[in-house]
Amino acid sequence: MNRKLLKRACAIIMFLLAWQSTITFGLVSPIIIASPLAIVQAAVNGGSDFLQAFRFTLTEILIGICIAWPLGIGLGILLGSNRTIADATAPILSSIFAIPMVIWYPMLLVWLGIGAQSKIAYGAIAGFFPIALGTLTAFNISMGDIVSSHVR
Amino acid sequence: MRSKIIGIRLAILGVIITFWEAAPTMGWIDPATLPPASSVAGMAWQLLHMPRFLANLLVTGERVVLAFVLAAPIAVLLGIVIGERLATRRAFEPALRIAISIPQSVFLPVFILAFGIGFAQKVIFGATHVIFVVMINTVAAVRSIPSGYGPLALTMGASRTQTFWRFYIPAMAPYLTTELRLGLALDVVGVLLAEMYGSKDGVGLQIFIWSETLHTVELFAPILIVSVATIFINETMRLLENYFGRWRNTLP
Amino acid sequence: MPVITVNDIGKSYPHPSKPICVLDHISFSVEEGQFVSIVGRSGCGKSTLLQVLAGLLSANEGSVSIDNELVRAPMPGKVAMVFQDALLLPWRTAFDDVVLPLQLSGVPIGERRQRATEMLELVGLAAFADSFPHQLSGGMRQRVSIARGLVRNPRIIMMDEPFGALDEQTRMRMGDELLRIWTATRKTILFITHSLSEAVYLSDVVRVMAAAPGRIVDEVAIDLPRPRTLEMMGSERFGQLRNRVWKSIAGTSIGEGERL
Question: How many CA atoms lie within 13 A of A80 on its CB side?
Fold first, then answer.
């Protein structure tokens, strides 16, 4: 087990070394991609700003999850519990899922302004559909199995 | 049963469209925020006749298609090469998994720095969305090929090429069609995102401009167009998927 | 002149401590048109031996000849393999599956369609030509697999526990089916099984294999009259033959390499 970890660690270190050397030896311009050292330095210097921003985004994400998960699972179970409804609505959900979520964002900006609400709403929507669809499918299949095993 | 299902779907669509039309018209919702369905549809119709919009639509389409056509075959090939051997799988799978867990939108600024805001950058950005998903699913597809196919093909006298095209590819076909559909969907997301935040043209830019200037009717129209288009493409690909997978009856 | 000649076959796999000998000095021959079974405990190397004979694996020592030609690779025109898993291609109908070997070798379409139809009729599945594997029962799938094996008119059919996954009833019916097809086509059949009754019932000769290392320890000629009927399984002679085979297997000790 330790040998595996060691191998992985070595691979990562070699990767970082290679990365650093392409910058140091001028093979790649530092404008395009920064060296690991420069990244660490920037993190240290601008640390607190970055952490604050990170915390803000993380909060937005978490709130979005708190909305998407219960709603998604709830709707998925609701729709999945009846065979007919599940078969009817699954394609609708998956069609909506097919729409690139990005284009909904400008809509949300117009509705909710540029504050946190629009971001949270976007995250919630983006998370909602796959969760609802997945739960619906899973619930539909397992309900089907339980029913058919009873029929037998 | 079948008619019931269609009935439910139509009912849901009916409710949504009715609400969409009634709410702003009746004033329940401010029509500046949510224009009625008819206005949006009307505007969409107009846009589809305006050369400038059509040009933007075309450019976006070109980027999406080019990114897909470039990335998908390479990704499938790489996926097969990696998936065939245990050693390569062990080596690359972790990296691939990390790659698809990272939200690729985060890298857009890097792409802008490296490649500017032109046509190529959009194509490359879109391509990266396609490549990882397709690769990792192809690896899974290769692994799903029953191990007996190799010896079976040999005893039947199949050459390597024949084994590949007649045994392996059809076995992988269901996986391939699904992952290509997903890849295309992500490709569209990538290209649109890149157009919204750093572009000189394209539907994404158009949407961005209209949202900034709060032209809601104009804003909703391309959103509607893109939505309908992507749903159409998705459903078509799904039909293909079902066609290729019709032998997969999953009853145990 | 025998159609299959196995000459001192040896096969071992490398291993950190010492090589594992899977096949040890195996020699025998099979005459044309014979039905030969190979029986032995699980893990004794029967499948490995069959794969070497079919050209799917290479031996470290010795040689196999079919029709006086050394076997280095599979010989699709001469030897057909039927595996325990029917391995029908799920996206092909029964007909398409049977026709596949002919497609691969470039037989013209009219001829190959006719041939495939004939084979499906031979195994009694003409009515199911357009069914997909998932619509067929286990026994039916094996019959398609056999039809597929026969379609290139090979001299020899090698079968690796083909009825192993079937229930007892189906197994016995399939055995009779196989004998019927064998009588009609006069092929040479090499049949691996771990059912002693099945081996005695079907074959002209039963060879017993021991494990670790894999080797032939006995050869039992089955002198029961043909055509064989299920009633024969209750006869005294059948019992004697079966016991002889059983004793040969029971006498084989559990060697180092064999896992229980």
Answer: 22
